[in-house]
Design goal:
The protein has 316 residues and is α/β, with parallel strands linked by helices. It contains eleven helices and eleven strands. Strands 2-1-3-10-4-11 form a six-stranded mixed β-sheet, sandwiched between helices. Helix 2 crosses helix 9.
């Protein structure tokens, strides 16, 4: 038995030394237009150039990223099926619903890829309030009649809005979408007047198709420097941000992890990649595999407390 185990370890090491020899799939749990998609595509393009093999992005939206993560967890640990994880699908969603994976044990962390500085509260241009004070006044005037959208139940930006409702003492109805992209397009089309989404909406803000009322960042986001934070408008409790990291199924051979970590570090420290992230309200930031694991662990404790405070629940 020991000899057989040593044989398989040797085979894995030899195979990993030649990695990669064929295309790699990069699964993401949100539709085109979402913040994760906007980062994953330029990342995959540059990663493929460094590794010498195509890195193909596959959108598998559903259950706040849980559908994609379940597919990653069940894939062969050979380095040819990878995924983007975030504090939404790796931390918050498993705290709210039953998922087909163990967020701590079903994956091999590879590296942090980027940090999202915060989220932006968007509104249709015809929506009367232009700031949080006016929004709160309208919500108190018409309790329970205002709706706000988000990219999905339990995602960081949704919980931030639930926290805002509590500290502001207002009642608004949450409308969940399968990603911030579709939600933002509904605001543009006038089917929704208010929603919290990603800074990827910056071009729409610049074009006057939506307007921004506030950002959830600790400080103003450089790409939207004219938009004040929730804290600046009297709500310092409302602060939320996100991150994306490269993961694979549990059991990835160490040489494969190292090759991917090295390549990721090259991508996310390049000025061209970070210039693309700037208008998304993000910045590239690499880590060790252990560093990504620690980020996930620390965020789990943080968001568990926020979920308890806001009382966010998911009906199943």
């Amino acid at each position: 038995m020991r000899a057989l185990l040593l044989f398989f370890l040797l085979v894995n090491t030899v195979l990993a030394a030649d990695y990669p020899t064929r295309p790699i799939r990069l699964l993401i749990g949100f539709p085109p237009g979402a913040g994760m998609d906007a980062v994953a595509r330029p990342f995959a393009q540059r990663l493929s150039e460094i590794l010498g093999q195509p890195v193909l992005v596959e959108n598998r939206p559903g259950a706040g990223g849980a559908v994609s993560n379940a597919a990653i967890a069940k894939s062969a640990p050979d380095g040819y099926t990878l995924g983007f994880g975030s504090n939404g699908d790796l931390v918050i969603v498993p705290l709210l619903i039953k998922v087909d994976y163990d967020p701590a044990a079903s994956f091999t962390p590879v590296s942090l890829v980027s940090r999202e500085e915060g989220f932006v509260l968007l509104a249709h241009p015809t929506f009367a309030p232009n700031n949080l004070a006016e929004l709160v006044a309208l919500a108190k005037e018409k309790p329970g009649s205002l709706q706000f959208g988000s990219g999905g139940v339990g995602l960081p930006h949704h919980i931030a809005m639930e926290q805002f409702k509590i500290v502001a003492g207002i009642n608004m109805v949450h409308v969940p979408y399968k990603g911030a992209g579709p939600m933002t397009q509904d605001i543009v089309g006038g089917n929704l007047v208010l929603g919290i989404g990603n800074v990827t909406a910056t071009p729409l803000i610049r074009a006057g198709k939506v307007k921004a009322l506030a950002v959830t960042a600790a400080r103003r986001i450089p790409a939207l420097a004219e938009v004040p934070t929730f804290a600046e408008q009297g709500y310092p409790q409302v602060e939320a941000s996100g991150w994306f990291g490269l993961i694979g199924p549990a059991g990835l051979p160490q040489p494969v992890v190292q090759a991917l970590n090295d390549a990721t570090r090259k991508v996310v420290t390049e000025s061209a990649f970070n210039e693309r992230l700037f208008n998304l309200g993000m910045r590239g930031e690499p880590s060790t595999p252990a560093g990504l694991r620690d980020i996930q662990r620390n965020d789990t404790a943080k968001w568990a407390g926020m979920i308890k405070d806001t009382g966010v629940r998911v009906e199943q």
